[in-house]
């Protein structure tokens, strides 16, 4: 290194620091900018004609009716929650189980292979998942469960579960790996079996990371659009069973925003749905944060 | 690190400059070209906008000197622009009304001339296992309409298609599709809405595909989307009237109930480039695009095959 370069070192350091600071702060900026933009698009209607009572309690979603336009989103809200909940019911045990297996039980060579395959699973685009739901899962569900129609909540939930499992597995596995080996050694030294070690020592020690894994999985399930649009049947109703078609908030935006005239009521209501989705994810994240802190304080 | 910083910080600026240069250069010939190029303004029906766009794009390839500019807005909008002179051709998925003709004559002194360019025909599809072969428009309205009375196949007097489940699985389209609009108008009437709980598919092909996979389903799509894995129902207007199969001749004769002619209107007999364009639309090439857009062509010479084997039936 030449001496001329050396006196540039502090400047370089400063620039890099500023740059990293900017990267960090930009996240806050972008989140707020997006929120403000989404809110502004829907604000006019939100403050003038918006009927919150109808929106939250009626299932009648008739945005293009000629005689009686109604914007009841209850069925869409129910759809989003039911599909996401069922997806998590399938994905969380499966994902965490896989994470524990890969981190604790797996022989090293298989481990490498599994990790590659799981990462590959995470790289499949959602429209491809949707296509799988539309074709393969559709006929499979009709045949196996004798369902009247293959495009339903169960189909959507399986697709969503398959999409969120890779996230849960890779983040969960990282969390387990981050638990120091000394914990494991201490547990074994105290005479724990492998299962006791995992349940009593590893899972409590890695709970924050595991919770983060689950939360990211839920985030993916709630926010996913294309796959659920194709796999759930896109039908406005309150489902009475897992084999009934549903329609989600995200799929409604995707299906209708393209053709809704800009700044019409319909357009603005779709942005209000966007605000609702934003709020849902926000609440989920905040709750997760509180849970993590609550656990941490104990 | 420092060395790299210089050129990299210049990069966005460079890109911006390039982009700006590109924009400037791109705009100039366009502006000059507008003077030389013959522009045909084409506006109207939203149903026909994709078809009109397909024609316009193909025509530019054949005749680069002519450019066709297509806009939607609805049949009424198209006729209004024809009358006030902002459009050369109005696309119309209905016949011009008497009042509109009068207004055109008064405002422009010319008679609007009608050119039939194709048909929009919807077929009602059921699964091959379904014993049903024909249906009336009244029953369709009760199946699809809000608070409709028909929810089961037995209400129509047929056995459930898969032997046990009686409930009709009603397949429809997402609420912003032109097909949805036309079905609502033709079957449910001007004011009635669709029933809630229909399965809303995102494309015409998807509807047919889902009906093929689902024994208890009924769905509608353009006639051009039919496959041999589904059955198209014959349709009567009312109980006791003759049901007609969705065939090209039945559509052309105007006896198939869920079909409408697609028109283009000009002021007076078209001349010059306008006449050439309309002639090209009526040529086999132009009509082929009608079929490819999912509509029914005028002639039977096209590669049309929605009504295989049923062509001679009523």
Characterise the protein shown here.
The complex is a heterodimer of chains A (298) and B (314). The termini of chain A are far apart. In chain A, a hairpin with a 7-residue loop joins strand 1 and strand 2 (70-71). The model of chain A has no long low-confidence stretch (mean pLDDT 89). Chain A has a two-stranded antiparallel ribbon. Chain A has 298 residues and is mainly α. Chain A is globular, with a radius of gyration of 24 Å. Helices cover 76% and strands 1% of the residues of chain A. Chain A has one domain (74-297): MetI-like fold (Orthogonal Bundle), CATH 1.10.3720. Chain B is elongated, with a radius of gyration of 24 Å. Chain B contains ten helices and eleven strands. In chain B, strands 1, 2, 3, 4, 6, 7, 8, 9 and 11 form a nine-stranded mixed sheet that branches. A two-stranded parallel sheet of chain B has the order 5-10. Chain B starts with a helix and ends in a 22-residue tail after the last helix. In chain B, helix 2 (49-62) links the parallel strand 1 (38-44) and strand 2. Chain B has helices at 2-36, 49-62, 75-83, 98-108, 137-144, 178-188, 204-213, 248-253, 272-282, 284-292, and strands at residues 38-44, 66-71, 89-92, 112-127, 134-136, 169-173, 199-201, 217-222, 230-232, 234-236, 259-267. Mean pLDDT of chain B is 82; it is low at 1-34 and 301-314. Chain B has 314 residues and is α/β, with parallel strands linked by helices. The A-B interface holds A 5, 8, 12, 15, 59-68, 75, 134, 138-139, 142, 148-151, 229-230, 233-237, 245, 247, 255-256, 258-260 and B 1-2, 5, 165, 167, 169, 174-177, 181, 190-191, 193, 196-202, 206, 209-210, 213-214, 216-217.
């Amino acid at each position: 290194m030449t001496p001329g370069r050396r006196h540039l070192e502090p400047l370089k350091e400063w620039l890099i620091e500023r740059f990293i600071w900017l990267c960090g702060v930009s996240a806050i900026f972008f989140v707020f900018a997006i929120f403000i933009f989404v809110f502004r698009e829907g604000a006019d209607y939100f403050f003038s004609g918006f009927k919150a009572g109808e929106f939250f309690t009626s299932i009648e979603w008739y945005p293009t009716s000629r005689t009686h336009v109604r914007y009841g989103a209850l069925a869409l809200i129910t759809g989003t929650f039911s599909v996401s909940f069922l997806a998590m019911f399938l994905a969380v045990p499966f994902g965490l189980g896989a994470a524990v297996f890969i981190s604790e039980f797996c022989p090293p060579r298989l481990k490498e292979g599994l990790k590659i395959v799981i990462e590959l699973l995470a790289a499949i685009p959602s429209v491809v998942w949707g296509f799988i739901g539309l074709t393969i899962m559709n006929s499979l569900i009709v045949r196996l469960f004798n369902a009247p129609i293959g495009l339903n909540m169960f189909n959507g939930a399986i697709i969503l579960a398959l999409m969120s499992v890779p996230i849960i597995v890779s983040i969960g596995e990282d969390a387990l790996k981050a638990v120091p080996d000394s914990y494991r050694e201490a547990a074994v030294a105290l005479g724990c079996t492998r299962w006791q070690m995992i349940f009593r020592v590893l899972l409590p020690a890695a709970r924050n990371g595991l919770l983060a894994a689950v939360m990211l999985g839920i985030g993916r399930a709630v926010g996913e659009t294309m796959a659920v649009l194709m796999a759930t049947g896109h039908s406005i109703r309150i489902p009475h069973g897992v084999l009934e078609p549903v329609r989600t908030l995200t799929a409604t935006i995707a299906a209708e925003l393209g053709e809704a005239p800009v700044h019409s009521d319909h357009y603005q209501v779709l942005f209000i749905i966007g605000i609702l989705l934003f709020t849902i994810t926000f609440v989920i994240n905040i709750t997760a944060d509180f849970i993590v802190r609550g656990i941490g304080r104990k | 690190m420092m060395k790299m910083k210089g050129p990299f910080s210049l990069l966005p600026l460079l890109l911006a400059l390039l982009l700006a240069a590109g924009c400037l250069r791109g705009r100039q010939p366009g502006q000059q070209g507008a003077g030389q190029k013959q522009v045909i303004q084409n506006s109207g029906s939203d149903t026909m906008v994709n078809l009109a766009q397909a024609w316009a794009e193909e025509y530019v390839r054949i005749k680069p000197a002519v450019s066709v500019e297509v806009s939607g807005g609805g049949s009424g909008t198209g006729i209004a622009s024809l009358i006030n002179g902002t459009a050369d051709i109005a696309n119309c998925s209905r016949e011009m009304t008497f009042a509109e003709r009068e207004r055109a004559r008064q405002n422009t002194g010319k008679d609007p001339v009608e050119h039939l360019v194709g048909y929009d025909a919807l077929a009602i599809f059921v699964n091959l296992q379904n014993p049903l072969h024909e249906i009336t428009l009244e029953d369709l309205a009760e199946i699809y309409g809000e608070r409709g009375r028909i929810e089961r196949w037995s209400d129509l007097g047929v056995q459930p298609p898969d032997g046990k489940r009686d409930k009709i699985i009603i397949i429809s389209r997402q609420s912003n599709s032109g097909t949805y609009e036309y079905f609502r108008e033709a079957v449910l009437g001007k004011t009635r809405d669709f029933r809630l709980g229909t399965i809303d598919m995102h494309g015409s092909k998807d509807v047919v595909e889902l009906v093929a996979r689902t024994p208890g389903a009924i769905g509608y799509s353009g006639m051009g989307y039919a496959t041999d894995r589904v059955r198209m129902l014959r349709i009567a207007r009312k109980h006791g009237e003759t049901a007609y199969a969705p065939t090209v001749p039945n559509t052309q004769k105007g006896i198939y109930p869920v079909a409408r002619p697609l028109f283009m209107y000009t002021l007076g007999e078209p001349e010059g480039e306008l006449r050439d364009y309309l002639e090209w639309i009526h040529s086999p090439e132009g009509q082929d695009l009608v079929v490819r857009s999912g509509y029914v062509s005028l002639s039977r010479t096209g590669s049309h095959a929605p009504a295989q084997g049923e062509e001679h039936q009523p």
